[in-house]
Each structure stands twice: as structure tokens, then as C-alpha cells.
Amino acid sequence: MDNQIVDLYLSNPKVKADWEAFLTSLNITNFSANEVDQIDYTIGIYNGDDLVATGSVAGNVLKYIGVCNKGVTTGSRFNAIVSELVNRQFAQHVYHLFVFTKLKYSESFQHIGFSELAHSDEAAFLETGSPDVHDFLAEIPRVDGQDDKQVAGIVMNANPFTRGHRYLVEQAASQNDLVYVFVVNTDASLFTTAERFQLVKDGTADLDNVIVVNGGDYMVSYATFPAYFLASPNQAVTYQTTLDARIFRNVIAPALNIKARYVGSEPLSRTTNIYNEVLKRELPPAVEVKVIDRNQALTSDQQVITATQVRQLIKNGETSSLAALVPETTASFIQHHLTTLQKRIQEGMNIDGN
Amino acid sequence: MEIKDTAVAGTLESSDIQIMISKAADGIQIDLQSDVEKQFGDQIRQVITTTLNNLGINAAKVKAVDKGALDCVIKARTIAAAQRASQTTDQPAWEVL
User: Fold this and answer.
1) Which residues carry this modification: O-(phosphoribosyl dephospho-coenzyme A)serine (chain B) (predicted)?
2) Between these two residues, A96 and A303, which has the higher pLDDT value?
3) Is the peptide bond before A141 cis (omega within 30 degrees of 0)?
4) What is the residue extent of each domain of chain B?
């Protein structure tokens, strides 16, 4: 039996066709460009001329793992493929890995050191390596007597932090003892993660019961919720947000005693609107979902505030109109970095998404 | 020896053990996963702890995924991971073996 692991170069049409045919035979059939283009590299095992096992990596996520166990000890090829992927990632100093898989394979991954973060009826989401979710939670600042306090959470990308975001945080802060604002960690927006984080911090500095935290890989990240960053069909959005919501409900909220999650109503964004619906379905009764009506935070000429508009103004250089949409802190940041931001847009940064 | 970085040695294949070592404030914490945990869990932890202590490491976070490794393998993988994590692979600690 030949168990040599080889690199598969999907840029070769013949290799790609074999790879797709093999995965299709195992019921993995989503080869949309969205997914396949994310792959950093792919490995496989051949038995003679036949592909019998394969796996890929995209960033810190393992993908497209498929194994045929015919004629060998069950699990041996699976272990070989996953070992190789894990070791290659570790060699590149990526020590924290995720996998999305069908629920029935969750156990196979748990068998080789992965731990499950959440699962739905069809899918499971697991992680391995370090720092893991316990390390992430241990790093989050806490206050004295937190277990007896009323604590709320908000997750936002804040690209950039607007008066709408500010209104949402103010509402939560006035109704709770403590509010965690988790800023999306994935760096795929016009404003970088560090900039977004700092603007949220600056924009909420006067609210002393608000703690701003990086959401890490666990809240609306590229790992848990890729559809937030890539246009995707509704079904994919629902499926990913279900897992995202369950991680929040099962892992994040209990550790911090979060009993409510605040979200803004979403009349304008399809993806975020589905996300809100899923949160309403998944979080209660453990965590209450409070939808804050966006129409309460209007500009003086009665417009709903969106970060999308702000980015449009940046593109057009209309900084004089910013004051109505964003707090002073964000406006001054934009004034000072206008050319850098416009350059990013010129270089192809998409500003119409989230 | 001091742990400076996260490092790994070993694989997830049968008869091997994968050991990941990272920094910790104090003490050696071992998170072990093994099919023979019931029979040999304590023994495996003991081998890892002793090996680390012999290397002069008293604080480390260890994640071990065991696939039925023998003691000599556990020891070898622990030394390799510890030397990588402490960036001392250019001075092999032969005396620990």
C-alpha cells in the first residue's frame, strides 16, 4: 500500500478534475470559486493512479478533507492527512486551527485532538492548538462581582464606528451594569482591525461601564462566518450564523455572564438581517436578543446612518458631511488619514459590503 | 531552559504522540487526549513531566494527543518539542535521554 503524501496542484486542470471527482464521490460538492479560491494548498494520497485521500488549508481553516478507507485500517489515511496539514501549519507558526465539518465527522476530529465549539443538526465547528477558546476567554477583562451583575454583549465590525454604533452602545450601557463590545477581528475591511478597534474605544471612552474587546476567531470571524465577508447564498449564511450564534450562546456568554445581546435593526443589509433572525432563534432563553431600532438614531435630515454611506463619503472626499454620521473621534481620524483610506479604495478594497 | 514560543513535535499517526508546548505562568499543565487514558494516562503525564523537569522546565502548557506511543517515543517527542519551544535545537540535550 502506497501511503505517500503528495502536493496536489489545483492549477493543473487534470489534477483539479480528479480532485473534484473524488470529493464528489464522497458527497462534497461545493466547488464555487468563493470557496476554492481561498485554498492555500492541497495535499493528497494516491493508491496507484487513484486519489484516495485529500485535504486543504485556507488560512487557519482546514477544508475539503476527504478520505476513502477501502482496503486500509479505518482512520489511518484520515490521520495521515490531518497530521500532515496540522504539522505544515505549525511549521508556518500557525498554531491555532479550525475545521468546519459534517456533524458525523466531528467525532473523528475529536479523536485527534480537536475540540468541538458548536454544532448544528448538519454541521460542526472544531478547533485545535493554542491559544484556544479558554485562553481567549481568560484574557478578557472582568469586573468585581460580575456574576451578580447584568451584563450585555454587542458584536460589531464598525467599519468605521458611526453615530449609529454609538447609539446602540449607549442604549445597552444605560440598560445594563456592564457592556462588552466585541470588535470583529478579521482584517478584511476598509479600516484595519487595529483602526476599527481604536475608533470603537475612542468613541466609547466616556461610557465607563463599556469594555471593548477584540472578538478573536469566535465572533463573526473569517473562520466562523465567511459569508459576512464574501457574497454568499442565503442558505450558507443561515448555516454559518447558526454555528456562530451557538458559540456565543454556549461558550462566550456563560463565561462572561452575558444575558443579553444587542443588535441594530437591519433594514438595508441582507446578510446581517439573516444573522439577526438566526440570533433571535438561537440565543433565547439563555441570552435575550434586544433589537434596537435604527430609526431612533437618525441624522438631522432623517436618514438612517450606515457605515456604507460613510465609506462612500470617504471615496468622494466629502469630509464636510461626516459630522452628521460619525462621532468627533471617528471624523478626526478620517480627516487625518483621508489619503491613505482613499488609496485603499483605489487599490480595490470593496466598500459596498460589510 | 525557558519556553519562548509555541512548538510542536510528533504526528497523529498510530504509535506516535503529538506534543505541543507553549508558555505558562507557572507549573506544568498537561492536557492529554489518549485512547488508553484510563490505563496509561498517569504514566504518560509522568513521563512528560519528568522529561520537562530534567530539561529544567518548570512552567509550560502541554497539549498531548496520544496514539499509543511507547515511553521512549513520548520522551523523544517531548524533548524535541521543548527544545523547539525554547529555541535551543542547536544544542541537543543528550544527557536528558
Assistant:
1) 14
2) A96
3) no
4) 7-91
**Neighbouring C-beta atoms of residue A342, cutoff 10 Å:** 14
Helices (H), A193-327: 193-203, 234-247, 253-256, 270-282, 307-316
Does the predicted model carry a pTM greater than 0.90? no
pLDDT in tens, A174-211: 999 999 999 999 888 899 999 999 999 999 999 999 99
pLDDT tens figures, B69-89: 999 999 999 999 999 999 888
Domains of chain A and any CATH numbers: 5-130 (3.40.630.30), 135-346 (3.40.50.620)
B35 to chain A: closest CA residue: A111
Structure-block grid coordinates of residue A53: 485521500
> B18 and A95 in contact by Cβ < 8 A?
no
Query: Is the Cβ pair B13, A80 closer than 8 Å?
Result: yes
Mutate to test the interface with A, among B12, B15, B32, B63 (most CBs of A within 10 A): B12
Q: Locate the chain A residue with the closest alpha carbon to B84.
A: A91
Substitution target in A74, A77, A99, A112 with the highest count of B β-carbons within 10 Å is A112
Residue A5 host element (H or E): strand A5-8
CA angle in degrees (0–180, nearest 5) for A23-A27-A33: 60
Is residue A249 classed as helix, strand or coil in its secondary structure?
Answer: helix
- Report the CATH fold assignment for B7-91: Ribosomal Protein S5; domain 2 (3.30.230)
**C-alpha distances in Å from residue B52, one per residue of B42, B64, B90:** 15, 13, 18
